[in-house]
Amino acid sequence: MKIRKETALVYCDKQFGLADGKTAAGLVRHSEIYRIVGVIDSALAGKDAGEALGEEKSDIPIFADLDDALSQLPKVPDCYIYGKAPLETYLSADERLLILAAMERGMDIINGLHQFFSEDAEFAARAAQANVQIKDIRKPPQLSDLHVFTGQISDINVPVVAILGTDCACGKMTTAIELNQALNNLGIRSVLVATGQTSLMQGARYGVSIDALVSQFVIGEIEHSIIQAAAVESPDIILVEGQSAVSHPAFMSSLGILKGSMPDGVILQHPPARKFRCDFSHLAMPTVESEIELIEAISQTSVIAIALSHENLTAEEILDIVEEYEHRLQLPTADVLSHGCQKLVQTLLRHFPKLNPEISSTLKQPISEKIPVLGTR
């Protein structure tokens, strides 16, 4: 039975297509829960959301403001999604007014911020009056429902692969989703474990927004999500969405993912044109080599492939970088949004031949003979 998706309008004023607009961009690219009918961004009003991301036309219009959207859409959307992911934790006064206006028009509010709207007295009262719901995606489970690390992750007998990165907002989630879909389309049962608010909004069935947890439970919740996914889905492979970067001084998320998932391999996402870390203009980006060295020094895993973000790069430049990285690093390298997931899929099949030997022969893209086969648990 086909599940009806709720219609949704995504707020992302002056940030769509930029680093702090990654939630909105992710929802435009993929959502199993919502049918995105528009994006609010006054700087890009009138454009198509897909084209604004430098991709194919999505037929999702960008509107100047809430009134503009509601005047042009055929009906009021079911939901209003706050689609920014800023470092700041609180709404501006103008953004509060927009959320109140959306409630008055009968729209449920979907919130990915650390500021929980359901605990805001004014929002809660207005939601009750308008008979709408507030969903705080980052709100952690009750204490009684949280998990500490048990070590049972060692009993998982299928490959677990983490998609980590060299920075925040560099494409880890996008690569994880695209790769998960590509594997399932080939008949390989792949399950994605979410670790952030956007992928949970997109419909990931397993995982938790780990940056909202007390640190005591981060590693245990990742482990528990993987164990749960393995038990319920009986998958061939489990992919774990990455957050931030192991080397990033401001965040600890990647360390928790490495510890909690104990991955059999890592795909490392990197934006080659980025000189400074997202939101930290005084912090220089690490090199791919230094990030690989750090990951492999603190965990019992290896980086098996590089995934690239083509931000601020031409098509020709990304092809040159792919060739350079593969020669220099001796690792398969791909930009999945530009060239698809074939190279990454074949890399997984090469490292984990028990996934599906019959599919290996159907993939023609060659990869280096120097890549060893890794064992699983």
Automatic annotation (TrEMBL):
Residues 147-345 form the D-glutamate N-acetyltransferase-like C-terminal domain. Residues 43-140 form the D-glutamate N-acetyltransferase-like N-terminal domain. Coiled coil: none annotated. Pfam families: DUF1611, DUF1611_N. PANTHER family: DUF1611 DOMAIN-CONTAINING PROTEIN (PTHR40690:SF1), GLL3100 PROTEIN (PTHR40690). This is DUF1611 domain-containing protein. It comes from Vasconcelosia minhoensis LEGE 07310.
